[in-house]
Write a structure and sequence with these properties.
The protein has about 80 residues and is mostly helical. The protein is built from three helices and no strands.
Length: about 80
């Protein structure tokens, strides 16, 4: 699942900016992803991965890095 997240982030959210992230790169605090990109990521998680993400769980703590997101999703 982590690889799918990284691929989506790199290919869909960051490709136009010419940057890519690894599993433990900061997503929000670094400014790589803004709030619109997070909502696109949540839509990918819900649509392609089939997992429901409650609005109250969309936090910096749960979406800090691809590793952290994967760990959060494993708990759903």
């Amino acid at each position: 699942m982590q690889d799918q997240l990284i691929d989506f982030i790199n290919n869909e959210l960051l490709a136009e900016r010419g940057i890519s992230i690894g599993p433990d790169d900061e997503l929000l605090l670094s400014g790589h992803l803004d709030s619109m990109a997070i909502f696109q990521l949540v839509a990918f998680i819900e649509g392609d991965l089939g997992l429901a993400v409650p609005a109250q769980d969309i936090t910096v703590e749960n979406f800090r890095t691809a590793t952290v997101i994967s760990q959060y999703l494993a708990r759903l």
